[in-house]
Design a protein that fits this description.
It is a peripheral membrane protein. This protein has two domains: 3-88 and 136-223, 3-Layer(aba) Sandwich (Rossmann fold); 228-297, Alpha-Beta Plaits. It is 34% helix and 26% strand. The protein contains eleven helices and 14 strands. It has a six-stranded mixed β-sheet with strand order 6-7-8-3-9-10, sandwiched between helices. Strands 2-1-4-5 form a four-stranded antiparallel β-sheet. A four-stranded antiparallel β-sheet has the order 12-13-11-14, with helices on one face. Strand 9 (204-209) and strand 10 form a beta hairpin. Helix 5 (138-149) packs parallel to helix 6 and helix 9 runs antiparallel to helix 10. The radius of gyration is 24 Å and the shape is elongated.
Length: 325
């Protein structure tokens, strides 16, 4: 397979802030790659470089085989971009917004109108097609913005935190739309700070922190880096904590963790279900009453914490907010 995106050693500085610190990135044709990281990690800056909105201070990048510095117009002709905020004209209807995008891409009047009708239906906006978009909900605006990004059927679609600010229902609806685009063969580069979003949508995840790619792989590969599954237990009686610790220590790899209440315990294990079964037998044999017990796989939250030493939460650093996000 060919690379739809290939970036090497990208550097971008904003005065004293280095938003990108030698970022390397590859996106294979037909794949979905998620750039995962909190605000301030460098995700949006990377998108702005790849879409020719920013010039890097160092490094190289090609998009759909076109150099972003040598031929920025050629890059823009080959991509669709949906940013963090829906770029729609509030005074035009949904249909008029899409027709306008088609005309801007020189599709011609007839083709622009046909494409607008096709996408209005595809994105579930038929009932609102002739309403001004200022009357649309946030989720409807995001769907319209995404439709606008694919009017010209670009080989590469770049979505920069497409579900930011949406409620859970709207986010799930937009995920369904994105899956349909991917199933139809669209190559997708997605930035997100939602770990679940990357887990559900991406073939490969690139974890970014402080402007660098610090890990990459499938969701399962990244989760494996945290050291396997965990048995989690909640005891009925905290006075049995020491006995419960001994039970878990017999199957654990490493130390048994105990929460502040003394009733919640957790231990990493190598043999998953077999270790859980052994622990259950030992708890019963020792007469230790358990309110809850289960086997939990690592989440991408665990991965990010393991890789970076901090949680994947939005940055509150005013020096980088809105600049290097």
């Amino acid at each position: 397979m060919t690379d739809m995106v290939r970036a090497t050693g990208l550097v971008k500085r904003y005065k004293t802030v280095e938003a990108l610190s030698g970022l390397d990135l590859q996106v294979e044709e037909g794949s979905v790659v998620a750039l995962l990281g909190p605000n301030g990690a460098g995700k949006t800056t990377a998108v702005r470089v790849l879409t020719t909105l920013l010039v890097p201070d160092a490094g190289t990048a090609q998009v759909a085989g076109v150099d972003v510095l040598a031929d920025p117009a050629g890059v823009r002709a080959r991509i669709g971009l949906s940013g963090q905020y829906a770029a729609v004209d509030e005074h035009l209807t949904g249909y008029e917004n899409l027709e306008m995008v088609g005309r801007l891409y020189d599709l011609g009047r007839a083709r622009s109108r046909a494409r607008a009708r096709e996408l209005i239906e595809r994105f579930g906006l038929t009932d609102a097609a002739d309403r001004p978009t200022k009357t649309y909900s946030g989720g409807m605006r995001r769907r319209l913005d995404l439709a606008g990004a694919i009017v010209a059927a670009p080989p590469l679609l770049i979505l920069d935190e497409p579900t930011t600010g949406l409620d859970v229902r709207s986010r799930l609806q937009l995920w369904d739309v994105i899956r349909e685009l991917v199933a139809a063969g669209t190559t997708l580069l997605l930035t997100t700070q939602y770990l679940e979003e990357a887990d559900r949508l991406a073939d490969e995840i690139v974890v970014i922190d402080h402007g660098k790619a610090i890990a990459r792989g499938t969701a399962d590969q990244l989760k494996a880096q945290t050291g396997g599954e965990r048995i989690e237990v909640i005891l009925a009686d905290s006075t049995r904590r020491e006995s419960a610790e001994r039970v878990l220590a017999a199957v654990a790899r490493g130390d048994v963790q105990v929460d502040e209440s003394g009733r919640g315990l957790a231990a990493r294990v190598d043999e998953g279900a077999r270790s859980l079964q052994q622990a259950l037998r030992e708890f019963e044999y020792a007469g230790i009453e358990v309110l809850e017990i289960g086997l939990r796989r690592p989440t991408l939250d665990d991965v990010f914490l393991e890789l970076t030493g901090h949680a994947a939460e939005p940055s509150t650093d005013a020096s980088t907010e809105g600049v290097a996000s």
